[in-house]
């Protein structure tokens, strides 16, 4: 009998064949979500799962934020891996539940996906089929921890619609707690009394995951890793900030590595930096920021409003300098993003150095690099 390929492409989730041995299902859009899912699978010793990789919404042609190469490293964890092509129709969690509940066996099933709120489809399918569902809401980055009202505002412009959705979601979450046997959040932080508490087990699992799959870059012993923001502020301003930082440390004896966002395809920044600072290395690839931190083991990480700026400290215990407070001071971002940045500054100020003055960043980096010599 011909064996089906491990990685397959399907048009819709409903096109995925039902596997009797499936004990869990993972549905993700980004490489960060996938890494968090793998960390959960390892820490809970799950076996016999199915992975669904969603395509970028409304992208034409179809685009993915995860590559086959990234997924294939862990293909032994899954009975099937499916890249879902079509995102024109709204993504239906009901298809995932029906997929799981169609199994012949009655064992509990795990659903891992990056959405902390309980949906009506999830609730209705659990009630109808009376099956034990373990719902695991995966960390999807900084947006996992912002208030529900703000996350709804990014999807809806009408104030009445936002408030109505907020009330309805609150009701669903309260009702769902009686029917969903287990619901847990898994990521960098737990939330206790509106405070972010580092999740030690998740951070340790992610640290081991990244170190296991990368090759250390021994040529960079005293390195500063800079992450360039993309579509958070105007690109010209992002370039100016990084150039100011390089003016302060770019000609010192510390190695500088800059990671651009995979969607940032402009070459003008590369040309400008390369001409002024020939020793600076610029990375344009799909490799995740966390993998780069594991590879280079930098003495410091620098960035703006980005998940990797926060994750670098809590996963790898690397000193982190953020200039996102500069955005707030100069009103460079929307009021909603300003609130988010202020929230993280208040919550994580004991762990992350927030610099509102760009010139202060260079001074902080010089001190850190001197300590690591």
Summarize the structure.
The chain is α/β, with parallel strands linked by helices.
Write the SSE topology:
Elements lengths: L6 E4 L13 E5 L2 H14 L4 E6 L13 H5 L5 E7 L8 H9 L7 E5 L6 H10 L3 E6 L9 H6 L5 H21 L2 E5 L2 E4 L2 E4 L1 H14 L9 E5 L7 H15 L5 E5 L8 H9 L4 E3 L5 H8 L3 E4 L3 H10 L3 E3 L1 H6 L5 H14 L4 E2 L3 H14 L2
What features would you describe in this structure?
With 373 residues, this protein is of the alpha/beta class. The chain folds into two domains: 7-145 and 181-211, Rossmann fold; 219-371, Rossmann fold (3-Layer(aba) Sandwich), CATH 3.40.50. Helix content is 42%, strand content 18%. The chain is built from 14 helices and 15 strands. α4 (120-129) links the parallel β5 (109-113) and β6 (133-138). α7 (200-213) packs across α11. The longest helix is centred in the middle third of the chain and has 21 residues, at 159-179.
Largest sheet: 7 strands, parallel
Task: Please name the CATH topology of the largest domain.
Answer: Rossmann fold
N-to-C terminal Cα separation, in Å?
60 Å
The coarse silhouette is globular
Please indicate the percent range of residues in DSSP E strands (runs of 2 or more): 15-25%
- The level-1 CATH class of the largest domain: Alpha Beta
Give me the strand/helix succession: EEHEHEHEHEHHEEEHEHEHEHEHEHHEH
Relative helix content: 40-55%
């Amino acid at each position: 009998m011909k064996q089906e390929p491990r990685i397959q492409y399907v048009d819709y989730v409903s096109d995925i064949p039902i596997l009797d041995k499936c004990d869990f299902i993972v549905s993700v859009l980004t490489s960060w979500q996938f890494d968090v899912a793998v960390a959960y699978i390892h820490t809970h010793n799950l076996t016999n799962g199915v992975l669904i990789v969603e395509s970028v919404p409304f992208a034409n042609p179809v685009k993915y934020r995860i590559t086959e190469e990234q997924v294939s490293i862990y293909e032994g964890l899954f009975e099937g891996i499916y890249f879902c092509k079509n995102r024109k129709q709204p993504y239906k969690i009901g298809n995932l539940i029906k997929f799981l509940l169609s199994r012949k066996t009655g064992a509990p099933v795990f659903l891992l996906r990056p959405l902390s709120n309980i949906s009506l489809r999830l609730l209705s399918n659990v009630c109808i089929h009376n099956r034990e569902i373990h719902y695991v809401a995966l960390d999807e980055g900084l947006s996992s921890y912002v208030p529900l009202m703000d996350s709804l505002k990014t999807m809806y412009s009408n104030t009445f619609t936002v408030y109505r959705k907020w009330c309805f979601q609150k009701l669903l979450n309260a009702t769902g707690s009686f029917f969903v046997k287990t619901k847990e959040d898994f990521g960098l932080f737990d939330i206790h009394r509106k405070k972010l508490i580092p999740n030690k087990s998740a951070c340790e699992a992610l640290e081991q995951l990244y170190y296991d799959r990368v090759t250390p870059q021994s040529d960079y012993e005293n390195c500063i890793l800079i992450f360039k923001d993309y579509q958070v502020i105007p690109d010209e301003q992002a370039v100016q900030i990084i150039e100011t930082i390089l003016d302060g440390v770019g000609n010192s004896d510390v190695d500088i590595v800059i990671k651009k966002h995979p969607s940032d395809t402009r070459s003008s920044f590369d040309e400008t930096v390369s001409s002024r600072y020939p020793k600076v290395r610029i990375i344009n690839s799909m490799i995740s920021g966390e993998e780069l931190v594991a590879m280079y083991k930098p003495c410091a990480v620098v960035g703006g409003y980005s998940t990797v700026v926060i994750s670098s400290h809590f996963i790898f215990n690397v000193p982190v300098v953020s200039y996102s407070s500069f955005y707030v001071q100069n009103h460079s971002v929307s009021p909603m993003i300003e609130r988010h940045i202020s929230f993280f500054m208040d919550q994580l100020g004991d762990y992350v150095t927030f610099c509102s003055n760009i010139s202060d960043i260079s001074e902080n980096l010089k001190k850190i690099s001197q300590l690591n010599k």
